[in-house]
Amino acid sequence: MNEPRFPNDKGEDTWMVVQVFADEHWHAYHDIRRTVLFEARGLIGYDANHPDDRRDGHFPLLLLLENTPVGAARLDLMDDAAACVRTVAIRAECQGKGHGRMLMTGLERFASQHGVKILLVNAARDAVGFYGALGWSVVEAGGENPVLTKELRTGP
Ligand SMILES: CC(C)(COP(=O)(O)OP(=O)(O)OC[C@H]1O[C@@H](n2cnc3c(N)ncnc32)[C@H](O)[C@@H]1OP(=O)(O)O)[C@@H](O)C(=O)NCCC(=O)NCCS
To answer: Which CATH number fits the domain that encloses residue 65?
Structure first.
């Protein structure tokens, strides 16, 4: 399979962020989002056939740890070299161990390679500290989902 892969900084193959193409990766992507973002929050109605996941310029991504999917996110390209980060989720049993940081490191690299210079996220209120730890800044603190942004470094 010819999937774009974004290995970790040490060049080791223990974790990587991949764009979702294979059926087994689509299955894991939806399973992680359904369990973490819906079931764990008491929500129902997750839609595994939502057209936004397949739209041009939208990139579903998976964090693989030793080839096992542990996290998911989607990167949606916008105008003016900006992109929106959607539905960031790490499997419950894998949270608090640095995996969210790995996922976002791979996502940022993927975004840079697609010409993105600035990322935005509508964060869950209790995830604002996570983005803060990763260098994001709050631009709209009010509301149910604070808006945060992060400028990506360009060049090597
Ligand atoms: C939010 C989430 C993606 C973070 O992933 P994670 O693997 O638990 O985070 P990490 O272990 O990589 O933490 C990275 C850093 O963020 C900090 N952090 C993580 N979650 C945090 C939180 N809720 N509040 C404050 N800081 C947090 C960690 O302390 C760590 O800081 P450090 O590296 O300086 O020690 C994950 O917990 C999750 O899926 N939560 C449920 C779904 C969710 O809220 N998604 C976000 C939607 S916008």
So the answer is: 3.40.630.30
- Provide the residue range defining the domain that includes 117: 5-151
pLDDT tier, 108 (very low <50, low <70, confident <90, very high otherwise): very high
Q: Could you tell me what percent of the chain has a pLDDT over 70?
A: 90
The pLDDT score that the predictor gives to residue 1 is: 40
Q: Is the CB of 27 under 6 A from ligand 1?
A: no
Q: Which residue puts its alpha carbon closest to atom 28 of ligand 1?
A: 130
pLDDT over threshold 90, residue 24 = yes
90 domain-assigned: yes
Q: Which residues contact 131 (CB under 8 A, 6 or more apart)?
A: 121, 123, 148, 150
The dihedral over CA atoms of 13, 2, 49, 7, expressed in degrees to the nearest 10, equals 20
Structural domain includes residue 135:
yes
Task: Choose between 142 and 71: higher pLDDT.
Answer: 71
